[in-house]
Each structure stands twice: as structure tokens, then as C-alpha cells.
Amino acid sequence: MTNIILLGPPGAGKGTQARHLVENRGMVQLSTGDMLREAQANGSEMGKKVADVIARGELVTDEIVIGLIREKIAEGAEGGFIFDGFPRTLGQADALGDLLAEMGLKLDAVIEMAVDDSALVARITGRSTCGGCGEVYHDQTKPWPADGKCSNCGSTDVKRRADDNEDSLKTRLMEYYKKTSPLLGYYYAKGQLQSVDGLQSMEAVAADIAAALD
Ligand code: AMP
Q1: Which pTM does this prediction carry?
Q2: What counts of helices (H) and strands (E) characterise the chain?
Q3: Of 118, 158, 161, 174, whose Cβ has the fewest other Cβ atoms within 10 Å?
């Protein structure tokens, strides 16, 4: 059982690599972004409360995301957890350490997915995902199939995120540098940080992550 964090700015490819690890290693992906979008889609009180914050590209409170993660960790995962988009602040990192310790679990690795800022805008602004299975597409590099059906599951439900626009992305990047990038030093000091070049092909990044874990 391996528990890891994928750390990197929006558009670094965390979600894509997390999906790959789920399929190949039987790990469980815990994406706080996905959980928050689900809460919005369900129309829950919490979902309504965070909608504007997410649309602007700011971070929601530590309390909310730590609560979401606590519930999921309690459910357990035989193959281990992939934390995707969490933790994003030092407070969240401390809370994750405590939650794992309470469950008798440990963090095996923190993988930094390093990418140039200049690549992020292009990656984010052409992005779509399949509403059926979560497969990630991109207008330039991996367009939605011409027959209108997801190549993975056949769904015709193309989803674009409301916060995948240039204005929100600027705020999301600011939030990353101000609040999340200090986690690189935090985990480096604990001897847990490994870095991969996130600008390579999806397959090459996956191979580097596999090498880091094995
Ligand atoms: P993501 O899908 O990871 O890009 O997250 C989308 C948005 O959800 C972020 O821009 C934040 O507004 C919010 N969010 C997701 N995860 C967190 C987190 N760990 N802490 C605070 N806000 C989060």
C-alpha cells in the first residue's frame, strides 16, 4: 500500500496521472477539486457556499477540505491513496499528517510535477473532460473524437470547467505560489519530496512517477 501526494500548479497534469495510477495500481484518487465540484452539482449547502470562491480561482477554507478528506480516509483504500490537489496550504499538510497518523497510515512520497508557467495557460484553456468517465481531452493535443463519443466510455457528455479561463487561472496560479508552493520546502525538509518533469509526454511522466514509487 502506497500513499502519495501529487503536487503542482493547476494544469500540471495531476488529475491525468492520478487516473493512470488508479487504473494501473489500484490506488484511490482523492481529489478535493472533484469533491467540491460534486458538492456543487448536488446542490448541497456547502456546494452553494463555495461556488463563488471556486469560480474566482481562490482557495476554499482549510476546514471544508480537511473535513472532506477526513471522511474519505476513514473509508480506507487497499491500494493506497493519491492525494490530488490536497494539501494546498501548510495547515492542510499538518492536518493530513495527523489524519494519516490517526489511521495508522504513512505518507510514502510527495511527487512534484514541475512545469513552466507559460505552458499552463495553453493547457488549461483548451481543456475538457468526459462527464461519463473523467477522461481528459484537450482542443489542441487530444481533441474530443469527431464522432462526438468519448473514446474511453462512449459518453457524449463533454464537460468544461467554469474556472478554466484566463482570469481565474491567474488567481489560481497566485494562490499556488502564495499558499501551496511552500509545501515543496515542507516536504523536502521531511525527505519526502521527489520531482518529475511534467512537461514530458503523459507516458514519460507516468514512467518517471512509477520509477519514483518503485
Ligand atoms: P482543482 O480541481 O484541484 O483545480 O480545484 C478546483 C478549485 O477547488 C480550486 O481552485 C479551489 O477553489 C478549490 N480547491 C480544491 N482543492 C482545494 C484545497 N485543497 N484547498 C482549498 N481549495 C481547494
Answers
A1: 0.93
A2: 9, 8
A3: 118
